[in-house]
Amino acid sequence: MDITPIIKLEYILFFAIILISIVLYSAYIQRKILNKKDTIIITGLRILPIILFSAILIRPFYFLKKVQENAFKNILLADCSESMNNKNKDGSTRLEIIQDIINKAKNKGLLSSKLQLESYSFSNEKIPIQQGPIHILPGKSAIGKILEETIVADQYSPIASIILATDGNSNIGPNFIQVAKQCKEKAIPINCIGIGENIVSEDIAIYATDKTLSAIKNKTFDFSVKISNSFHKEQKFSMSVLDNEKLILKKNIAINANTSKNIPINLTPTKDGLQSYRIKLDTPEEDCIPENDIAYVQVNVKKPDTFNILYLGASLNWNYKFLKLYTHKKKPLKLSSIIKMSKDNFYISENLRKLYDKNAFPQKIDFYNKFDIIILDLRVEEHLTKEQISNIYSFTENRGGGLLCFGPVQEKLKDKNFKSLLPFKNIISENNFVKKHLEFTPSKVYPIKSTESLRSQPLLYLPENKAFFNITELKLGSKNILSDSSNNSILAIQQYGAGRIAYFASESSWQWHLGSDFNLQRYELFWNKLFVWLASNSKERIKSLFQSTKFAKGENSDFKIKVYDKYYKSANYANVELEITNPNNKVQKFVLSNENNGIFSTNFTPRLSGEYKSRIKVKFNDGTRLEKSAFFISSSQSEEVVNSDFKENILQDVARITGGVYINYQNLKYPLKLNLSKKIPFELNKIFFLENWFTLIFLLAILGFEWFHRRKIGLS
Prior knowledge:
- By secondary structure, the protein is of the alpha/beta class.
- The chain has 13 helices and 38 strands.
- Strands 18-17-16-19-20-27-26-25-22-23 form a ten-stranded mixed beta sheet. The chain has a six-stranded mixed beta sheet with strand order 5-4-3-6-7-37, with helices on both faces. The protein has a five-stranded mixed beta sheet with strand order 9-15-14-11-12, with no helix packed on it.
- Strand 17 (333-342) and strand 18 (345-348) form a beta hairpin.
- It is rod-shaped and about 170 Å long.
- The mean pLDDT is 85.
């Protein structure tokens, strides 16, 4: 407090003393005619106006600091990183609390006066907050980086305070405690609002201990997965192993509280090449991180040392007998046979009798899938049921098995799908009156370098006076491998779905076995090369490059698909659509763009955590349509979720270091009372204590009461 007297202070005090002395002398004289009480009242009522009037003349005052409202700003930084999806004890998410604070800010109820406020949401970048609800932002939280950018960008526009609403998790960028010290040097207080509670997350998670494994086709292999239980009690649930959408194994699991357990798994792959298996847990609803309930295992399945071959025949013939001798001699080849001898009589090879002892052709698909190659006498087709035909078709198209056909083709086959397996359009039966030599077309089945003996003199031949089946027209996508001197196709092949198919137009190859050791070697080389090619899975026409991939939730990602045409070359002209079903069963459809070389792509941002199912639909220019399923995981299993505990002590330190205040969200009272920077500009207003209407009224009231009291006691 200070004073600014109207006249010199000495004069004011001098006159005040004189006037008070006169009043006191008057009271001394009046004591003889007034009682003591009235004397004191009259004297006090006369001295008080003198003191008050003297004080008015002295003019005491104080300075009032008033903030210049438009000369600075407060900045609200609202954390919208992935960890804000965590729930509190009442079930609300941290993001919902942030949304409530932002709503208060928009309604001008956040701060105590008309203070300028700028609001931003942030993760590893900050963006201005617009109208509408806020969302989780992509990337990891970078509190230090955001604070640093804020104080640098606004160095020419004074900051009164930074209001930081966060759970304290910062996973990239500079240490934000160190950046807080920079704020202290610039006299910018950080007022922290703690968003979160210290609660223990309860979760069941599965981890593939070996993500890439090796196995042999049709042989059981073992591996294990690790399952952890962070619940405070034992949990029981089921585990399913799937090949695409097909369930191949299911187990019931029990894991004690706060422990981990290795679970053994036994699988038998039926395809070679790189295979992907999905392992899913059926966990309780309280599981807080559902996306880690799924694991993918990649298995590099090698071709087997032994090829299992199933011969389905309509009668015993020399072709079968010599093939049996050859496969018996070659250990990698194991031939099993089921041959219809008469109406109710079947021949079943000795090595098959323990596995199959019925007097009929096999009915179940599981039986066929035990083999790598099926040799089919087409005379058998009329004796097969629709289910048996369908299973042979599925063995080739879906499982990827090899199918070798021979014999006459009926004019009307029972099943159109079965007819589509054959690599030709037209075929006629002919008699060969003269011996015809055969010539090979170089191919993957019979490469030039490795099959020189097959092309040496004397050439392989069709014997005279033997019937053969003249292929007059091949299908598009099939290839002629072996031709006679009249350019008739004797051996045609094609790739079909995941499998391979060959048709051999002669039933007299056994005669190549005769005559010499050289002929025997060529006979064996011919069949060995053909069997190896048939038993080796071909590539699929649709290849999902995102199958079994884990994508970061909230990040824009490329989804690519490789497409092959009917010749199994890169398809640059096709209509490719992608349907993606999210964990909530909502479907989004995309038309993919052609990147060239058979690659089609689109961009997709997964917004939910968990497993997504996709359906790829391809339409080719010739009208052919193909479909394929693929799966992938959207995961928030980054540092944002793993390191998502509430860091209250860090926020308290930041507030203390910078001169701000710390408030937990549960204790918020609006408007907020925050500390502001001492460097922000103020206006100083001089306020006089006694220069107001109240002082004047009070002075007049004293004088009026003194006059009234004198009249009351009889003084003039």
